[in-house]
Amino acid sequence: MEKVWAKVNAILIADDPKTFITRRTSEANLEFGGIRGDRHFGITSKADSRQPMYPKGTEILNRRQITIVSGEELDRIAEELGVESIRPEWLGANVLVKGFPELTKLTMGSRILFPSGAGLICMGENKPCTLPGDEIQKHYGEHEKLSLRFVRAGNKRRGIVCAVERPGIIHEHDDVQILVNDYVNPMQ
């Protein structure tokens, strides 16, 4: 298992029930279920369009407790869209890291370990959708069709979703160790 390091540049929470937009905070307490008060908090969630194998509304494991994005990937999205910057708040992210520019390619089962002992397990890529694109469009009204263009530009750069594997406090500026799951499925 390869070990790499990154730095937490921001901790964010979506605690306004009217929006998915996150706000910055200096630290967060990760619990089984995510960050209490965040819109994605919970050990379980309801199946939606992302889980077409289950009837909509079926209770399933919440694989989307924490969303992590890479500063380098956000810079590449902004460049492709021709805008100054993309803020993690606009994407509803909970953690912004720098120093791991290929975060979205992190394999399922990889771990992100914090100095407090808290640990996250990668549950996969966060697929881009038009909702964050709509938010980006609000900030760059002079650019056309950013909502739809974001879906293409964010493909393989939108970050990952994680579940809390071990609770603990996480802080802005934490150095995190990323354990890359290098298991290859022999069935593929």
Provide a descriptive summary of the structure in words.
By secondary structure, the protein is α+β, with helices and mostly antiparallel strands. It has helices spanning 71-81, 130-139, 146-153; strands at residues 2-13, 23-25, 27-31, 34-35, 44-46, 59-61, 66-70, 95-98, 111-113, 119-125, 160-166, 168-171, 175-180. The strands form three sheets. A seven-stranded mixed barrel has the order 1-8-7-11-10-9-13. It starts with a strand and ends in an 8-residue tail after the last strand. The relative contact order is 0.26.
What is the topology, as strand order, of the major beta sheet? 1-8-7-11-10-9-13
What's the total number of strands? Answer: 13
> What is the element string, with H for helices and E for strands?
EEEEEEEHEEEHHEEE
Distance between the termini: 20 Å
Shape: globular
Poorly predicted segments? none
Strand proportion, as a percent range, falls in 25-35%
Compute the gyration radius: what is it? 16 Å
Tell me the structural class.
alpha+beta
Number of helices: 3
Assign a percent range to the helix content. Answer: 10-25%
Indicate the mean pLDDT: 95
| Biggest sheet overview | 7 strands, mixed, barrel
